[in-house]
Write a structure and sequence with these properties.
single chain, alpha+beta, seven-stranded antiparallel sheet, five-stranded antiparallel sheet
C-alpha cells in the first residue's frame, strides 16, 4: 500500500509538448535517451513507502553541455527535469510526480583536479564517495562525509547529506567550497572559488546545498579534503540505558574529546546486528566510537572516554586499531537497514530520521521507544548521538492497512516530538515529498513564502524537480 503524493499545483506537460521534447532529445542524444519502462522505473526507485513515480524519459549525461542542452530543450516546452545520482535518497527526491525527463549523472564521474597542498578537489557530480577516496588514498587524503550508502557527491550535496563522521568533520554544508550550477535557461552559475572563506556577495553555494535539485542542477563541485589520520581506533561500549549512553556522549563533547564518530544503537538494533552480521555484542544500548589522530592522541582519547563511560553506567570499554576489526564493526553499523529487513522477511522497512539538541536526545529516544511499545510496532533505532540525529527503521506489512495506519501515526508523533523539543523533522534525509507537511510547523509560513519566492526567481517555469521540498501555497 504505497502512498502516492501529488501536489495541486503540478500538471503533467501537454502530450504534444512532451512529444516534441522527446523528439528533440532523441535528435541530440541518440541512444543516450532511454524511454523503456524498466529504465524509467529504475530512476524512480524509492526505499520508503512512497509510491514510485517514473519520468517519461531518461538522458545519460556525460558532460556539462549535455545538462545544459536537456534543460534548454525542456524549458522550451515546459517539461520537468529531475537530476539523478545513484538513487539512494529516502524521501522521494527522485520521483517524477509530473512526469518529465530524468538526467542521470552517473557517467559524469571524473575527478577534475586535486590540490593536495590546499586540501581540496574539483569533481563532477557523478563521482561517488568511495571512488573519490580510492583515488585520494595514495596521496594521504580522504573525504570524510559518510552517509553509509555509496552515494554520488552531487546527490550528497543536493540533499545536504551527513553521516557517521559529522560530529568531527561536519556535514556537506561545511565541506562544499563552490559549485557550478545549470540554471533554468541552460546558463551556468558559479557560486564561489577555492578560497577557504569569502565575504563576496550572497552565499549562493549554500543556497544550492540541500536544495534537492529544485533550483538548478549541479554540474561541478569544489569540496574540502582531509589528511588520513596516522591512527584510527574503533571502540564499542554497552550501557544499561539509553540515557546513560547519551549522557556519556554529552560529557565527552563538553570535555573536548575530539571523537570522530559516536553512534548509538538501541537494544533492538543490537539484536538485529548480532543476528545479521554474526556479532556477539551485549543486547543492551550500545555506543560505537571512532578516534582519529596520532597513536598517542588516540590512546589518550580512548582512555578518557572509557572513564566517562564508566561514570555513566557503561560496561567494558574495548577499542582496536586493527583495520579488519574496525571494518567489521562499522560494516555492521552500515548494514543496519538490511539487518532490520531480515527481522521480518517480506515486510517493508521505512527509514526516517529526526534531530534534536543533544541534551534532549535521551528524552526523545526513550519516548519514541515507549510509543513503539504502545502502538505494537517494531522499529530499531540508530543515532548519530554526537549531533542529536537518530534514525528509526520501521518494519511494517505494507499490505496491512491497519498496521500502516499505526506506522503513519508513529512517524507523525516522532516528528511532532522532535519539533517540540527544539529539533527538526529531518537531520539528513531531507524533505523531498515525504516531509513537506512538517515544514510550516517547523519554520513558519513566512519562511515557506521566502522559499517559494526563491524558487520562482530561480526557476520561474517550475521545471526543476517540481513537487519537492516546498508545499503548494
Amino acid at each position: 500500500m504505497a502512498t502516492t503524493i501529488t501536489s495541486s499545483n503540478l500538471k503533467r506537460p501537454e502530450p504534444q509538448a512532451l512529444k516534441s521534447t522527446i523528439e528533440a532529445l532523441a535528435a541530440r542524444f541518440g541512444n543516450r535517451l532511454i524511454t523503456s519502462q524498466a529504465v524509467r522505473e529504475q530512476h524512480a526507485h524509492t526505499t520508503t513507502w512512497l509510491a514510485s513515480q517514473p519520468p517519461d524519459a531518461v538522458v545519460m549525461a556525460q558532460e556539462t553541455a549535455d545538462i545544459q542542452d536537456v534543460v534548454r530543450i525542456c524549458a522550451k516546452h515546459g517539461v520537468p527535469v529531475i537530476a539523478f545520482g545513484t538513487g539512494t535518497s529516502l524521501e522521494g527526491q527522485v520521483n517524477a510526480p509530473a512526469g518529465g525527463v530524468c538526467i542521470d549523472l552517473r557517467d559524469m564521474n571524473r575527478i577534475l583536479e586535486v590540490h593536495a597542498e590546499d586540501l581540496d578537489c574539483v569533481i563532477q557530480p557523478g563521482v561517488t564517495r568511495k571512488a573519490l577516496n580510492e583515488h585520494l588514498r595514495d596521496q594521504g587524503l580522504f573525504f570524510p562525509i559518510d552517509p553509509g550508502a555509496d552515494a554520488s557527491l552531487g546527490g550528497m550535496t543536493s540533499t545536504r547529506a551527513s553521516g557517521t563522521n559529522a560530529v568531527r568533520y561536519g556535514t556537506m554544508r561545511e565541506n562544499v567550497l563552490a559549485l557550478k550550477v545549470v540554471r533554468g535557461d541552460g546558463e551556468i552559475i558559479t557560486t564561489g572559488t577555492r578560497a577557504k572563506k569569502s565575504a563576496a556577495g550572497y552565499d549562493l553555494t549554500h543556497l544550492f546545498v540541500g536544495a534537492e535539485g529544485t533550483l538548478g542542477i549541479i554540474c561541478e563541485l569544489t569540496i574540502k579534503l582531509r589528511g588520513i589520520p596516522d591512527t584510527i581506533a574503533a571502540a564499542a561500549c554497552s550501557f544499561e540505558t539509553v540515557r546513560g549512553a547519551c549522557q556519556a556522549t554529552i560529557l565527552a563533547i563538553q570535555t573536548g574529546i575530539p571523537v570522530a564518530r559516536i553512534e548509538l544503537l538501541n537494544a533492538e538494533q543490537v539484536k538485529a546486528c548480532n543476528s545479521y552480521s554474526k556479532l556477539s555484542l551485549p543486547e543492551t544500548p550500545l555506543l560505537l566510537l571512532e578516534f582519529h589522530g596520532t597513536a598517542a592522541d588516540v590512546a589518550e582519547q580512548s582512555k578518557n572516554f572509557g572513564e566517562i563511560a564508566r561514570e555513566c553506567g557503561g560496561g567494558d570499554f574495548s577499542w582496536t586499531t586493527r583495520p579488519e576489526d574496525r571494518t567489521k564493526l562499522w560494516q555492521a553499523r552500515h548494514d543496519a537497514y538490511w539487518s532490520v529487513k531480515a527481522l521480518r522477511p517480506g515486510a517493508g522497512v521505512v527509514a526516517t530520521d529526526v534531530c534534536v539538541p543533544i541534551s534532549r536526545l535521551a528524552d526523545c529516544v526513550t519516548e519514541t521507544e515507549d510509543d513503539l511499545k504502545r502502538l505494537g510496532l517494531l522499529s530499531p533505532i540508530v543515532g548519530h548521538v554526537g549531533d542529536g540525529n537518530f534514525h528509526c527503521s520501521l518494519v511494517c506489512d505494507v499490505d496491512n492497512a491497519e498496521e500502516m495506519a499505526r506506522g503513519e501515526e508513529f512517524m507523525h508523533r516522532l516528528v511532532e516530538r522532535a519539533q517540540a523539543m527544539g529539533g527538526t523533522c529531518t537531520g539528513e534525509h531531507g524533505i523531498g515529498q515525504g516531509k513537506q507537511k512538517y515544514l510550516e510547523a517547523e519554520l513558519g509560513s513566512e519562511a515557506l513564502d521566502a522559499m517559494r519566492a526563491l524558487k520562482k526567481a530561480l526557476d520561474p517555469q517550475n521545471i526543476f524537480n517540481p513537487g519537492k521540498i516546498v508545499p503548494a501555497a
